[in-house]
User: Fold this.
Amino acid sequence: MSTHHATLHYIHDPLCGWCYAAQPLVSAAVEKLGGRLALQLHGGGLFGEPRRLDPDMAEHIVHADQRIAQLSGQPFGKAYLEGLLAEQGTVLYSLPPITAVLAAEAVDPAKAYPMLVAIQDAHYQRGLRVVEPEVLGELAVETGLDGERFTAAFAKAQSTQVIEHVQASRRLLEEVGGQGFPTLVLEVDGKRQVLPHHHDYGKPDAFVERLAARLPAVH
Assistant:
């Protein structure tokens, strides 16, 4: 946390549609309040085991995504809607993308959040299979990370590290009384409070304004 007086804890999952809805809010907070606020990512493992998409689940996701698009204005690409969601054999598995974010953070802490954004956009707009390490490696390079260093960090984080991270994220979620993903928690001087954000979908400026009002004064 070092020079920052406050931390925004973001309990999320890369494959959670409502976290994609919250992406503009978190991005706006990072962009406009980054000097006063540290962002800490906590991947919660929505799909803790590989799950093959079946027609019922696909239909449920499509309906949820329509609502997300309506509320947040976030785009869902044709390659995702007509490709990834429509194809037999699509697997949803949160651990590889969470591992990729941890690997990005290990190589360059400033790239952790851009890596998460790249994964979300690749999944929801480009219809890429972000459960595949090769795809995640390509996204890392697109994000400006060194490919070899990322691959090494990914391999290191792949086993116990990612499991421990997900377990810690779930513990935090329970401790703060969060209602699932996404949960945003503001920590100031060791005191944590859950930030209501659902009314701010599609209104990042309003979210930033309310968040800024809770931050310590700049001296």
In short: The beta strands are 6-12, 37-43, 51-52, 91-92, 183-188, 191-194. The domain at 6-213 is CATH 3.40.30.10 (Glutaredoxin).
